[in-house]
Design goal:
alpha+beta; six-stranded antiparallel β-barrel; 52% strand
């Protein structure tokens, strides 16, 4: 009788040992899988899912971005006291952006300012919004001021354009239009619609 009880006890103990051993092996495998997963690099898509699509990857303070022409000369400079950077599409949203565009031959400056901006670094394209101002001065024509609420500056193509209302003021005239396209190096403006001009007598 005692022999049967001892044999049953040993058999039960072996079953429990096998069960505990199996549980330990499964736990170890789970830990290894977790460690391997944690060592995998976080992709930009994973980062976006973690932070949300509208949250930046980082903040930039007093940032300046420069572009150069084929001869190595400065062609554009964009700066902002504060911006938010999004790595996925190489984009920076800017507060109070300021810009400088230089004509290729004459090196005459175009000064840009707005309340907000969005700059795509790889495309060298800047969108300015709210209280946009462009000042341009040449020896022949003097100073001109362009005002609008939205303007796209494409430094790769060397053009500026908008479909918003525009006011252009210089020493002898005031012009209003809706929609405009300008070629920076050629100093050519194309006014698209509802053009209304006033000329001052000297």
């Amino acid at each position: 009788m005692m022999g049967h009880w001892l044999q049953a006890f040993i058999s039960d103990l072996q079953d429990r040992s096998l069960w505990l051993w199996g549980a330990a092996v499964l736990t170890a495998l789970a830990l290894v899988l977790l460690l391997l997963r944690s060592e995998q690099p976080v992709t930009s898509r994973d980062a976006e899912e973690l932070r949300g699509p509208d949250k930046p990857d980082g903040f930039v303070i007093n940032a300046t971005y420069r572009s150069f022409d084929s001869e190595g000369r400065l062609s554009a400079r964009i700066s902002s006291p504060r911006g938010e950077q999004f790595d996925d599409d190489k984009r920076v949203t800017m507060e109070s952006p300021r810009g400088l565009l230089l004509e290729k031959d004459s090196r005459a400056p175009w000064h840009l300012a707005a309340e907000r901006g969005e700059y795509y670094l790889n495309a060298e394209r800047l969108t300015l919004n709210s209280n946009v101002r462009i000042r341009h001065e040449t020896r022949e024509r003097g100073e001109a001021l362009l005002k609008t609420e939205r303007l796209v500056v494409d430094n790769r193509k060397r053009i500026v354009h908008t479909d918003a209302p525009v006011t252009i003021i210089n020493e002898s005239s005031l012009t209003r239009t809706t929609g405009m396209k300008g070629w920076i190096d050629e100093r050519v403006l194309e006014l698209e619609s509802q053009v209304d001009g006033y000329y001052y007598s000297r």
